[in-house]
């Protein structure tokens, strides 16, 4: 029988960036907050001598245990969905800090166009630019509304950047710290893109160029360029993460507590309001009920949607009829690009997760789509993240996949190859969605989340066009051979691509086509808030974290207001 705990003001499900931001803001406002975290406690001290590629990057030390909980996947509705048994296309994290522990640190603001994509597309290209199968929609908030919260995120994180992107939305302040080092690799990209008439700028980075103390008094150290960012915790405390910023800020108030090894299996609700959450401590097997005045879902995209589904909150999306909103507008990300093989050697083994240079000339609607059969685009970047030896084997396409020739080519090209990559946007399609699996369950007896997803004609056209632009830039950089990425056909759950999943709990201004309102307040339960990349109406041409953080700050403001006044915030 579940043990009922003392009621608190706010309970968050998940303690990563969103859970940490909301905890810090609410605790500073005097609210008692409890964070429920399925993983363990961890911090900078745990990452001393963390440079173990096999343990962290290959065996996924910081990721979710898929033997306990995973997802099922299929490309089409008429296929049998099967469980993802090992980490593949995206990495599901757990533990204090969530994905904010093992991210690279790219920190973007979405373009003003992104927030009003439907109205802007129709205004410029007409209503028939995309077929009705694509569920594009305005978000319900504008860039101008989001700008103050982007500013909060950047100054809390200490983001390093140069502010030279001519396509960016209006900023209230410059970046809090200057850009990272401009290496010879980045300079090569800079010259090539300038020669082609484009506008390169340094990638906004949460690997800081200098030591920085944020407005809450938390210090982030200067990056050491060790090359162990993605899939690793930072042993220097130089990659901004929740464990060194918002979580200690929340704890210092005396109003915050985290319960570890605790997996939430249900959001409890009655009479149109959430009453708390039910969770299981998987170390002891004990079951608990945590009552709360406000419940906030702050876990990963897929888990937020799953918890609403298994708790029976909201109407699940039906692709056959188009009715329902929960699980709708799932999007992934498209990855065009090109690789160049050079005679010269580069220090590719050095770097940082967000050490890079970018152009936005082919992102959003920054270029004319009148004669193109797709909308949006993606940032084109060269990054120097630190190539690690086990999983970095760049070889020309005519190289055997194994044996002596492969080994020789791999060693030869390890420091003689460079890649330009794009994060291509993904538009929602009526046949791409999240639901519950009817066959498979997790270790707690809860149905697994089911993902139905495939690339669309829009995706394939975007990928082809942006890859051609990447090839042109790479050719300008002077390699002996340039190879564009292969055209995409059907989506596969392997190999790794990005962890930039979006949609499923979209926000909006109408309960008929969204799950939460513009303050992330659930339409069907006024004291339930849901925040994360699941709120995105589509995926953009950037990493989602900066926008997720901005939504979290906005959501925290809404929670504090609700705690004082109650009722709907719109």
From TrEMBL:
Q: Which GO terms describe its molecular function?
A: gluconate 2-dehydrogenase (acceptor) activity
Glucose-methanol-choline oxidoreductase N-terminal domain: from which residue to which, for each copy? 143-329
Q: One matching Pfam family, short form?
A: GMC_oxred_N
Q: EC number(s) in its UniProt entry? A: 1.1.99.3
Keywords in alphabetical order, please: FAD, Flavoprotein, Oxidoreductase
Keyword Flavoprotein present in the record's keywords: the answer is yes
What positions does the domain Glucose-methanol-choline oxidoreductase C-terminal occupy? Answer: 428-552
Mind telling me which InterPro entries this protein's record contains? Answer: FAD/NAD-bd_sf, GMC_OxRdtase_N, GMC_OxRtase_C
Gene3D superfamilies annotated for this entry?
FAD/NAD(P)-binding domain
- Family membership, please give it: Belongs to the GMC oxidoreductase family.
Q: What is this protein called?
A: Gluconate 2-dehydrogenase alpha chain
Q: Which organism is it from?
A: Bhargavaea ullalensis
């Amino acid at each position: 029988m579940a043990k009922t705990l003392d009621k608190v003001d706010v309970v968050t499900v998940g303690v990563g960036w969103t859970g940490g931001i909301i905890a810090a803001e609410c605790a500073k406002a005097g609210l008692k907050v409890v964070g429920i975290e399925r993983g363990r406690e961890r911090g900078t001290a745990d990452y001393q001598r963390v440079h173990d590629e096999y343990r962290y990057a290959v065996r996924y030390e910081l990721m979710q245990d898929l033997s306990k909980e995973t997802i099922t996947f299929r490309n089409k509705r008429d296929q049998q969905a099967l469980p993802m048994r090992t980490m593949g296309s995206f990495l599901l994290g757990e533990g204090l800090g969530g994905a904010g522990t093992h991210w690279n640190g790219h920190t973007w603001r979405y373009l003003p166009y992104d927030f009003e994509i439907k109205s802007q597309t129709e205004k410029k290209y007409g209503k028939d630019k995309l077929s009705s199968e694509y569920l594009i929609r305005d978000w319900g908030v504008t860039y101008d509304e989001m700008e103050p919260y982007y500013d909060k995120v950047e100054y809390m994180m200490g983001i390093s950047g140069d502010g030279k992107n001519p396509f960016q939305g209006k900023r209230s302040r410059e970046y809090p710290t200057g850009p990272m080092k401009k290496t010879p690799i980045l300079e090569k990209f800079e010259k090539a893109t300038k020669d082609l008439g484009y506008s390169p700028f340094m990638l906004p980075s949460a690997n800081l160029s200098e030591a920085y103390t944020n407005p809450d008094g938390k210090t982030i150290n200067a990056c050491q360029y060790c090359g162990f960012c993605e899939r690793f915790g930072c042993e220097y405390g130089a990659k901004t993460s929740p464990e060194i910023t918002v979580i200690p800020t929340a704890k210092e108030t005396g109003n915050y507590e985290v319960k570890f090894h605790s997996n939430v299996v249900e959001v409890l609700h009655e009479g149109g309001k959430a009453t708390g959450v039910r969770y299981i401590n998987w170390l002891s097997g004990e079951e608990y009920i945590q009552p709360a005045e406000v419940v906030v879902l702050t876990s990963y995209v897929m888990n937020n949607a799953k918890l609403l589904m298994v708790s029976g909150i909201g109407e699940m999306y039906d692709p056959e009829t188009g009715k329902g909103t929960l699980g709708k507008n799932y999007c992934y990300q498209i990855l065009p690009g090109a690789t160049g093989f050079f005679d010269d050697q580069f220090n590719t083994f050095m770097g940082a997760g967000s050490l890079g240079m970018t152009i936005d000339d082919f992102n959003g609607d920054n270029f004319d789509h009148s004669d193109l059969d797709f909308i949006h685009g993606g940032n084109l970047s060269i990054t120097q993240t630190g190539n690690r030896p086990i999983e970095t084997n760049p070889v020309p396409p005519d190289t055997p996949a194994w044996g002596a020739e492969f080994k020789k080519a791999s060693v030869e090209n390890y420091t003689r190859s460079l890649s330009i990559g794009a994060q291509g946007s993904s538009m929602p399609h009526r046949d791409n969605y999240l639901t519950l699996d009817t066959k498979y369950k997790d270790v707690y007896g809860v149905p697994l989340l089911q993902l139905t997803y495939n690339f669309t004609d829009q995706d394939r056209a975007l990928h082809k066009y942006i890859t051609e632009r990447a090839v042109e830039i790479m050719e300008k950089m002077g390699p002996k051979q340039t190879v564009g990425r292969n055209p995409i056909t059907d989506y596969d759950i392997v190999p790794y691509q990005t962890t930039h999943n979006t949609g499923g709990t979209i926000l909006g201004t109408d309960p008929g086509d969204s799950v939460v309102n513009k303050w992330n307040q659930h339409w069907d339960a006024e004291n339930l808030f849901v925040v994360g990349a699941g709120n995105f109406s589509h995926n953009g041409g950037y990493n989602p974290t900066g926008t997720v953080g901005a939504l979290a700050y906005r959501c925290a403001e809404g929670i504090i207001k609700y705690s004082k006044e109650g009722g709907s915030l719109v």
